[in-house]
Design goal:
Length: about 270
């Protein structure tokens, strides 16, 4: 086999990405992963005016250098306002959407549902395939253990994270609530003072903020005389970025609809 430079990539067959929140941590991680892949290229980077934007980023509402259309994938890790702008772009251009923006209101979720009638939409609170495995392990544990086992969820993130608890922690808590027939009222966000005996149908939620934690989620299941801990630790954002690219490959060829990360596993491994 002869040496030499690698052949140029065929940009016409690559999936084009439009990055909302391009200057953020996840936007940068997705771009690094995409540039290291053979099947993606970055078509546009979109940022809000107040950010220290990528040098080639444009602002929401302004034209990008290339037309955006069906077959392209908008990747959104921005803000609730940025997610709304991403939905408008997908509505106008027919592009698919992958979104990991957290802190969305019920109205924003309804906007995603409406968009999913026209294009594929995949939204997840966490794009780590390891977290998906954690959720499956939690479901298996809950199906095995008695209902009187207590459940506490502890999440740790860096000091600059804006929302608490994390979207992933809420997803885990709602997995527990659904398995036990409970609602959001069962979630107990921290404890202070004379709280009394712990109710049986309570799901403890604890958010730690500090340092440079990328993402650490722990589910503690405690019974009489024994306990079980399920934990996922993300050491680098590349773990999330690879899941985002797997989601982008999926929606680039999917039918319109609202999808979840689990669909990557149930309909074919990423």
């Amino acid at each position: 086999m002869s040496g030499g430079a690698a052949p140029p990539r065929d940009t016409q067959t690559m999936i084009a990405l439009i990055l909302f929140g391009a200057a953020g941590r996840m936007g940068a991680a997705v771009e690094r992963a995409a540039l290291g892949s053979d099947d993606f290229r970055i078509k546009a980077r979109i940022e809000r005016p107040s950010s220290e934007a990528h040098p080639s980023a444009t602002l929401p509402g302004k034209d990008v250098s290339e037309p955006v259309g069906p077959g392209d994938v908008v990747v959104d890790f921005s803000s609730p306002e940025g997610c709304a702008a991403a939905c408008r772009l997908c509505t106008e251009c027919g592009s698919s959407l992958v979104s990991g923006t957290t802190g969305l209101s019920p109205e924003a979720e309804a906007q995603l549902d409406q968009l999913a009638r026209r294009v594929p939409v995949l939204r997840a609170s966490n794009f780590s395939l390891g977290v998906l495995a954690l959720r499956r392990a939690l479901a298996a544990a809950l199906a095995t253990l008695p209902l009187d086992w207590d459940v506490e969820i502890v999440e740790r993130h860096h000091r600059r994270k804006a929302d608490a608890p994390s979207g992933t922690a809420l997803t885990l808590a709602r997995d527990v609530a659904a398995a036990r027939g409970l609602g959001d009222a069962a979630l107990r966000h921290g404890r202070e003072g004379r709280t009394g005996e712990r109710p049986r149908d309570e799901i403890g939620m604890h958010a730690v903020r500090g340092g440079s934690f990328v993402g650490d989620h722990e589910v503690l299941l405690a019974g009489e005389g024994e306990w079980l801990e399920l934990r996922h630790v993300a050491q680098d954002r590349s773990a999330f970025a690879q899941g985002v690219l797997a989601a982008a490959r999926f929606v680039a060829h999917a039918e319109p609809g609202r999808y979840h990360l689990e669909d990557l596993v149930t309909r074919g491994r990423p």
